[in-house]
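so my prof wants the structure for this chain in the tokens format not the other one, which i didnt know existed until like an hour ago. anyway here's the sequence
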Amino acid sequence: MKRLFNGSIAAIGLLIALVVVRTLMHQPPASINTNLVEVELNEAALAERLSQSIQFQTISFQSPELKDQSQFSAFIDWVHTSYPRVHQSLDYIQLNDTMLYRWPGSDASLQPILVTGHYDVVPVIPGSESQWQQPPFSGAIVDGLIWGRGALDDKSGVLGILEAVTYLLDAGHQPQRTVYLSFGHDEEIGGREGAAAVAAYLKDQGVQLAWSLDEGSFIFDGLIAGVDSLVAAINVAEKGSITLDIVAAAEGGHSSMPPQTSAITDLARAITQLEEHPVPGGLEGLAADMFDKISRHMPFVPRVFFANQWLFGGLINDQLSGAPTTNAMLRTTTAPTMLSGSVKTNVLPIEAVATVNFRIHPRDSMDSIESYVTDLVASDSISVHRRGGADASAVSDWKAPGFAIIAQSMREIHGDIPVAPGLMIAASDSRHYGKVADNVYRFNPIRLTPELLTGFHGTNEKIAVADYAQGVRGYIRIIAHGTAE
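here's what i got, hopefully its the right format
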């Protein structure tokens, strides 16, 4: 017995030693010798132009008849006059209300690149106007902040690119590689007349891009628990989406004589099944690489877990699955969004419907999700019907030159910060640009903090003047490096 006890103690000691050694080895890579690049900008002038752009109410409504064409036309005219160097020096065509510029490179043998953003915005939630600290289309500059719809999503991206190209033109930059600039007008409603038209145009011209850069992730500040430094998360893929109707059928009748089960109760059980049995997922592939890189910058205790996934993998998955943001990185998510039932308070419905939206992880597909849901909830009274959707994008190579250029550019502006590949949990115009690009990256070179998150499609959207200027500097370095070879 004593020998068994001593053997157990020795085994535990070896296990602890192994865990500690692996944790100590789980360190950030050696510092990359990247010199900070000083870029002098007139930050007040940058802020003023972004402010002016926000004042154009370029709102994309789901109903096309609500579009105010005069606002879109006025914004396009304003871009042409506010950025004359770009408009006069680059080739230009307009596809519907989307602006497409081409800056020819000197070496036609090099594949072009594309840098893009969208200038349309979502509506302000009706009734929420009074909750804004500054009017949502004022573009007010107060206490170092620029307020208004589009400040983050995504006029800061569009104008950041225009400011960067203007800077490079003024500096006499001569691109070797051709770069396209695309500024979409309908990203918020699918990009079918904007980015899709640009992709079709490029295909017709025989253009296959080496890589493209669109909106996506940001430079995270305080958004990743346990990491004190800034983190540049460059999205290399985006989720797909499928919407399913879960339909429960029953005989109906008068509410005074309810049966033991009804369409409503059957539907409730089906929704509960979906909630209790999420689509399987886990820390693998892209998500594993992202957390591997980021966790190396965490304190010792959380590093213990990520450095020893062979031992703590289940615990890590449980913890990451418990937070909405990280759960979305691990799996296809399930979100019941709409319910319908009886037409009257005292009538039992013959049909009750739950509409459920799934954001598809790249490991899954529309067909596999529909099959999973059908196997889980379908019965004699429950059927599943597909409304529509799109599969997830391909996963771009995060070891390719385009990714390296973006990473290097961020280190030149912010120092030796962690850079990791990420997964975009929403959708972007890149779903269209990916058809004509070898690799597609989704990243805004702008700092994002937790207090700014609610501004996306919500209230009090804003950006700091200093952060916007840093974003312009980021675009300058990305475009300069991207067109230099």
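also thought this was worth mentioning. Residues 2-25 form the longest helix (24 residues).
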